[in-house]
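Dear support,

We are seeing what looks like truncated structure output for some complexes. This example has three components. We would appreciate it if you could run it in full and send us the complete token output so we can diff it against ours.
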Amino acid sequence: MNLKLKALTKSIWVFHFAASPCNNCDIEILDLLTPRHDVERFGIQLVGSIRHADVLLVTGVPNSKTGPKLKEVFAQAPKPCFVVAVGACALGGCTFRGSYNVKGTVDDWIPVNAYVPGCPPKPEAMIAGIVKLLNSLKEKK
Amino acid sequence: MTDTIKEIKKSLGKKILNTQEHSEKRIYFDIDKKDIVEVAKFLFKEMGLRFSTATGVDTPRGLEILYHFADDKEGRLINIRVLLEDKKKPEIDSIAKFMKAAEWIEREIWELLGVNFLGHPDLRHLLLIDDWPKDDFPLRHDHEHDHEHNKKEEHK
Amino acid sequence: MSHKVVIPIGPYHPLQEEPEFFRLYVEGEKVVDIDIVIGYVHRGIEQLSETKHFDQVAFLVERICGICSTSHPFAYVNAIDDLTKVEVPQRALYIRTIIAELERIHSHLLWLGLAGHFIGYNTVWMWSWKYREPVLDIFELISGNRNHYAMMKPGGVRRDIKEEDIPRIKKCVDDLVPILNMFKGAVMDDPVIQARTKGVGVLTKQQAIAYSAVGPTARASGVKIDVRKDHPYGAYNFLDWNIITQEDGDVFAKLIVRVLEMYESIKIIRQCLDKMPKGPIDANLKDIPEGEGIGHIEAPRGECFHYIRSDGTNRPIRHKIRAPSYMNVASNKVSAVGGTISDAAITLAAVDPCYCCTERVAVFNKGSDKKILNGWDLIKLSQEKTEKLRKEIFNK
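Here is the complete output from our reference environment:
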């Protein structure tokens, strides 16, 4: 594992991108920061700019307005930047599949490293997803 | 029949083409499209009803627009139904000129159903992207719905 | 001499929720005009609904919004009940009411936390989200999911509330009362919060009526409307509770309305649990006849409106949905104008839109240099103002 990755896995900073979700995943993501789960104890922090982020959390289905923005945001991210798709809509469109304004799923627009299913995933599931992502990075070396 | 309904019927008189009482709380009035401004002004300004929203419906007879007004004093919904028979070029006077609450919903019906609101202060896209194809109205029943992936881009 | 400067806010707010885009026109510190661009979360649900059958639509509309995930299905089932004129069993009406009121509590707590964060009181944020968790636990107990409860069904509800769960629900709402008292003391009597929110973002009664604002936004401006009282549905007709109104129309009034409404919700839930009759929970609705139906309910943010038209098949041919924020967000146009930029964050958040904003704040100065700030800066600006006020007040 190179130094960059090693440092990254110690404390990951997360940028959250809502690509036309129903809000629920987003609220559960915020819920992670609040006292019951408090992921900041593990060094995980939500940041205000993609330029500071190691991980991009994407929720919802990209539509004709947010899809291009999603690509733009990912292009601005310093690499390596890992993408986690959160929730059933980000994975496969969920109940919104087939709508005239929905343009594919997240992995049609940007490469995705980890998927967290659920509608919405419980906060514990999200933590498990992030941990799995970190473990896979450590195994890579 | 209660006072509000009586008063509406008295004041609007012949403008009401048809009345349909689905239940005590849900009343539908059919009117002609040229009377919409006058009727909406009367209901909103003089009767003091709250404008709830408007619904555009694509029917075989033409495009229907329903204006929903809520009477909060008597717990009733008064719905004004307008039929636009010409589907090629549907047009109706805008009520957003004097009712700010109707500004967004008219923009929405314009972009999703293609109804032109004459005299609307600011008729542009609300929900869809600005370069959405013209003459492509998602809520019309003859709209082609298999849009998914048609704008899919390769990321590799 | 003043330059008119444009500040775009959005569409991506680093913190939270749906994207939305505001263009603030400012002269110096003062906001002179505002343009609101929405549509970033447009998923075409009205059209999708026409492709699903009536039972599936309840799940679809649940996914319109995660915070009001029972309000939309509730309005939808009301529309179906109006269309079919079915008699819904009493117990189902009470269960629907309990779920809707629990949701109001969790939604208002959520807003309170975010509002606290926007003005730089992160403690308020952490507290209110911490005390929101027990409410979510109750949802999990009743429905099996923390959000998206899937309780509503045309003609009834999907799950019963078990007798043995009732003491736990009662204990949960009882425990909320001292917490709310604490909040009322800590938040509403705080001189800094008062200084930040009183007289800020005023929406007058006339403006509220002109924009047809609904819910707490309208009630804070002295418009006494509440769908639960004016157009009774569910079990609200059999219960005793009050409409909370305030006269000032500023952010502080909206805060008070929401905090006091939570007490009313607790009152309603307690009565429901006591009065709830035994019996069936579903009317076993089979066919939906041809016709049209309208259902509207008081969601945490205001009136939520659903219109359904059926042609006798198993799918709706038109389903119109109007969420409360649709009316309230538009009223930002008047309430944010005239304020300062540092007040903009809290003013725009005060209507409790499914709030969403800033990716970047770019300050365009006519003809001259262009400065790009990010979304935190707007919140930071707001938080700095609180800090300044706090020092002023406590150094006196």
